Automatic annotation (TrEMBL):
The gene is SPCS1. It comes from Gekko japonicus (Schlegel's Japanese gecko). InterPro entries: Spc1/SPCS1. This is Signal peptidase complex subunit 1. Component of the signal peptidase complex paralog A (SPC-A) composed of a catalytic subunit SEC11A and three accessory subunits SPCS1, SPCS2 and SPCS3. Component of the signal peptidase complex paralog C (SPC-C) composed of a catalytic subunit SEC11C and three accessory subunits SPCS1, SPCS2 and SPCS3. Within the complex, interacts with SPCS2 and SPCS3. The complex induces a local thinning of the ER membrane which is used to measure the length of the signal peptide (SP) h-region of protein substrates. This ensures the selectivity of the complex towards h-regions shorter than 18-20 amino acids. Component of the signal peptidase complex (SPC) which catalyzes the cleavage of N-terminal signal sequences from nascent proteins as they are translocated into the lumen of the endoplasmic reticulum. Dispensable for SPC enzymatic activity.
Amino acid sequence: MFNIFQSIPTQMDYKGQKLAEQIFQGIILVSAVIGFIYGYITEQFGWTVYIVMAGFALSCLLTLPPWPIYRRNPLKWLPVQEPATDDKKPADRKVKRHSKN
């Protein structure tokens, strides 16, 4: 049963994170403006809060899961490099000396 959950991708790339943040802020801003205007017209502050909360819920639904739109630009990682074996003895290495000014 847990194999199904392990197959779900959980990463976003950096451009996807930026897009998700912009969408999140845009939805919050629009819902706040609409909520303020509607609450002002109806003279009910409660409607302002409800509309902003609905905008928050919508923005969470659209931006928190790693939808495929947020995974379009994956990072290309470098391959793993084996540590180089240094056959030189410490006495064979040149000592770097700084010049005094």
